[in-house]
Design a protein that fits this description.
Layout (H helix, E strand, L loop, with lengths): L1 E3 L7 H11 L7 E5 L4 H10 L2 E6 L5 E6 L1
């Protein structure tokens, strides 16, 4: 699943991401694309038991893959 959060004002990207994680099945990956690095999201992911991989994209956005 890919969730494009570009163009949204905080806290919308984090709220959309956390809502999408509720429907994420075991072994699935949620990929989000944000305008900025989601610093506050990382703490939430850790508390919920998720891991993440963040890559800055050539256009300056960030692609974050979230998984268990």
């Amino acid at each position: 699943m890919i969730l494009d959060n570009r163009g949204l004002e905080p806290p919308q990207p984090m709220m959309r991401t956390l809502a999408a994680l509720e429907g994420l099945g075991e072994g699935e990956v949620l990929t989000i694309i944000n305008d900025r690095r989601p610093m506050f999201l990382y703490e939430q992911l850790e508390e919920l038991g998720y891991q993440q991989k963040t890559e800055q994209q050539p256009d300056g956005s960030f692609k974050i893959e979230i998984f268990r």
